[in-house]
Amino acid sequence: MWPYKLYYQLKTTAQNIREHRATVLLSLAAVGFTLLLLASYLLLLSNLQSVGERLGRELQIMLYLDKGLSGQARARVEEAVRAGKEVESVEYCSPRKALRSLEEAMGEAARVLKGLPENPLPGSLEVRLKGPYRNMETIEKIASRLSGIEGVADVEYGGGWMKRFFAFIRILRWLALSLGLLLLFASVIVISSTLTLGFYSRKEEIEILRLVGATESYIRFPFFLESLLQGIGGAALALALLWVLYQIFRANMGAAWGLFAGWGQLHFLSVPATILLLSLGAMVGVVSSVLTFSRFSAK
Amino acid sequence: MTPAISDRAAAGVSSGIIQLFNVTKIYRGGIAALQDVSFEIEKGDFLFVAGSSGAGKSTLLKIILGAERVTQGQLVVNGRNVTRIPPRELTRLRKETGFVFQDFKLLENRSALENVALALQIHGLPPGEVRKRAYHALRAVGLADKRDQRPLRLSGGEQQRVAIARALVNNPLILLADEPTGNLDPALSREIMDQFLEIHQRGTTLLVATHDESLPAYCGRDCIVLDKGRLVRDG
Q1: Which of B118, B75, B119, B115 lies closest to B97 in space, CA to CA?
Q2: Residue that is last in its domain, among A109, A131, A157
Q3: Minimum distance, in Å, between the CA of residue B3 and any CA atom of chain A
Q4: Taking each helix axis from N to C terminus, what angle separates A2-19 and A216-261, rounded to the nearest 10 degrees?
Q5: Are residues A280 and A141 in the same domain?
Q6: CA A280 to chain CA centroid, nearest Å
Q7: For B192, which DSSP code?
Q8: Which CATH superfamily is domain B43-66+88-233 in?
Q9: Which of A69, A85, A185, B59 is a Cys-bridge partner for B33, taking CB atoms 3.0 to 4.6 Å apart?
Q10: Is B133 an 8 Å CB contact of chain A?
Q11: What's the pLDDT score for residue A231?
Q12: Residue B113 confidence (pLDDT)
């Protein structure tokens, strides 16, 4: 019996949508654009996060050595650094090599360096960490430990701006959560209003169905289905629009983004993020129908 | 129905399909629609409820159908105590009870056949079976040839007959009718009453609310009278 019941309910859903197609389309567009805001935000966050992860992977520690350090003393420092289980490699850069690199980097302006009485640059050790230790917290601890080695004058690992970058991403994540909740709530209101209109326009039919003995679940299921379709449809519309916008952005601004992000490459939302957005759409649909039903039951 | 129906119900000696024991219904705002009403209808009976507007006739039918809750007293329909009925049982009760309204309550955007089919679809019957049974129900009320017409293309009497077909299509044990001829002229009213007599002949219990006191006489059936929510004439 239930397959036929489902058949009649699906027919009713299709009829509901057909009869109120203008309202349903309007609601779908409103939900789609609302979720587009959320999806765009998620996409930005996801790309910034990838940039952060890539930068984290490239993190290395620079140890500047005391000036005039003897070869033996330098070897002791290197040995002490290599002793750490987190260290993958250590490369020495002599003061002369450092000056050459600086000259190359400065190009024409390197002439100013010619007048210097002596090479002002110290020798340094480039310390590369093993994969699992390339994150801000660990690097900070290791850098602090290495700075205590005798013969090390200074330590640098770009910690300041990286810290600010990750703090920025953390703030964005919180904003995403609050904005997300707000936008989802707005979507619930939109779908719930459409559903309410549907309830009112089919009031007589619902009353008749109740009187001839239809169960509440039989009556409500088509509305539930309509609401679910609107939620998922809205999310799918948002994803489709975002994809188009993403392609336009990539074609016009991709190079600029690469420059800003350094090693970062632009990417679209991942499959789990896409599924998450569609699930959020479905959830919006379910919550809208539950809210609408509870309002009607109260009446 | 026996003449002393209220006495028998009050005494609890009954075998009726519909039994009311000191039923009172008070709406929000303290309006008493029914006050201490007791009577019973036996299976296969055909009874009229008469009374002026606001006497409580519609409320009486609604509480029997479970569309309104009883404030005080007990109501038993086909062995079920409707006063304490859970939603699932209420649904079953409604499937056993047909209901006909004064304003027909037909969906204007559906054909006569589709209106009747609505009451069958909720049982999950196959579409072919639904069409067949809806067609037979319409034929039984003489409207087989109008099955594809929408309600607004039908006369008042025809619309009421579609509503009767819908109420009967599930072979209910009880048929409740609230002012079924209220919007019809005398000739059409008699046509509907003939239909009810035929339905009664097939063994269905009928309870018909009307303010037209000529109808019970036309059908030769008993009538109880309500006045301001109280039972003033019994059988």
Answers
A1: B119
A2: A157
A3: 31
A4: 60
A5: no
A6: 16
A7: H
A8: P-loop containing nucleotide triphosphate hydrolases (3.40.50.300)
A9: B59
A10: no
A11: 92
A12: 96
CB pairs under 8 A between A and B: 61
User: Closest Cα to residue A62, out of A131, A158, A172?
Assistant: A158
* Beta carbons within 8 Å of B132's beta carbon, 6+ residues apart: none
Q: In what order do the strands lie in the sheet containing B72-77? A: B31-41, B18-27, B72-77, B80-81
pLDDT in tens, A34-47: 899 889 988 988 88
Point out the least confidently predicted range of A84-93, A263-272, B197-206: A263-272
- Which residues from chain B sit within 8 angstroms of residue A212, using beta carbons? 94-95, 99, 118-119, 122, 166, 170
Give kind and range of the element (H or E) at residue B138. Answer: helix B127-140
Contact by Cβ (8 Å): B73, B21 = yes
Give the number of domains in chain A. 2
Mean pLDDT of chain B: 88
Residues A64 and A153 in one domain: yes
Report the distance separating Cα B12 and Cα B73, nearest Å: 13
A107 and A140 within one domain: yes
Instruction: Give yes or no: residues A197 and A120 share one domain.
Output: no
